[in-house]
Amino acid sequence: MISPLLAVGLLVAVFVGFNIGGSSTGVAFGPAVGSNTVSKFGAAVLMSVFALLGGWTVGRQVIETMGGQIVPSSLFTIESSIAVLFFIGFALFLSNVVGVPASTSMTAVGAIAGLGLARGTIAWGVLGQIVTWWIVSPIVAFWVSGVIGRYFYPRLVEWFAVTQTEGSLLALDRSGTIPRPVLGPSTTPREVVGTGLVVLIACYMAFSAGASNVANAVAPLVGNDSITIEQGVLLGGGAIALGAFTIARRTLDTVGNDLTELPLLAALVVAVVSATIVTFLSALGIPASFVIIATMSIVGLGWGRATRTTTISQTVTGEDTPDVSVGALAAESEDAPTVGGGGKSTPTPGQRTPIGEEVSEDIPKAADLFEPKTTARVIVLQNFVPSVATAAAYVVFRFVL
What we know:
By secondary structure, the protein is mostly helical. It has helices spanning about 5-35, 40-55, 60-70, 80-95, 105-120, 125-160, 190-225, 230-245, 250-260, 265-285, 290-305, 310-315, 370-400; strands at about 170-175, 180-185.
C-alpha cells in the first residue's frame, strides 16, 4: 500500500518528468521538426523510446550522483524529496509556458544544492566537480565545433547537404504480390540518406537527454529508497513521454521555427557534438546542461566558419582580422534546408574556397541566422530558471521545513 505522502511524491516526480519531456524534446527534435523531416507526433514517439533507453543504460550513474552524492541520501526524507521535485518542476514549468527550453540539470542540481546549503551538509567536492564540468564542457563544445567549422564544414556541406523535394519520401509499389516500399516520385537516394541521418541524430540526442535528465525527475525518491532505480527510470521515462506528446509542441515551435534559421547541416553538427559530450558526462555520473553545451557549439561552429577568411599566420602576425559572425554558418548553404526555413538546391562539388581566400562579404550577418529577441529570451531564462529553483529550495528548507 502506497502511503499518501509517497503518492504525492510520485505525482510530483511525474510533473517534473512531464516538464523535462517538454523542454528536452524541443532541443532534440527541433531541427528535425523545423526542417519538416519529422512530424511533432513522430518526434514525441521517438523521444519517448530513446529517452527511456538512455535513462535505463547510461542514466543510472547520474541518478546515483544526484540521489546521494551531492547531499547525503538521509536528507531526502519524503517531505524533502517532494519539495525538491516541486521546485524543479515549477521552475521548468515556467520555462515551458513561455516555450523556451531550460537547463534541466542545472535546475535540478540547484534545487538539491539549496537543500544542502540550508542543512549545512552539502558535498562541496562533488558539487565542485559538477560545476567544473559545467564550465569545461561548453568550452570543449566551442572548440570542437570551431575546428569543424574552420577545417571541415565546407566539405561537409558538399558531402551531406540534404535536399528536400516535393511529394512523399517513400511510396508503396503494389505491382507485385507483396507491396514493397520504393522511393517517392521525386525522391533521390541522397534525400533518403540525408533524411535518415537527420532522424538518427535526433534519436541520438534523445538518448543523451534521457541519460542526463531522467535522474532529475526521480533521484530524490531513489535516494531515500522509496522506489528502486529501475522503477525510477520507468517512472521518469514515462513522464518524459507524456511531456513529449503534450507540452513539447510549444518548445518544438520555438527551437524549430522561431529561434533560428540554422542550416540543417549545422544543426546536425551541433547535435552530434552536444549529444556526445552529454553522453560522456552522463557515463561519469555528471548531470550536464544540454542547452548551454548546444548553444556554445553553435557559436563555435559559426566562429570557426568565419575564421576561414584568414590563415593562422595572418591572424598571428596581425595582417588580417576575421569578421567573426555566427551567421557564417549559412555562407555555403544558402539554398540548403534550414531549421525553420526551406531550400531547394545542393552545393556544387569542388567549389570550396581555400582558407584565407574567402571574403567577409560572403558571410551573412548574425541577424540573418538568429532572431535576436527570441535568442535574448532564451539566454535570460537559461540562467534565471536554475536560480529560482536554488533560491526557493534554500529559503524553504532553511526557514520552513
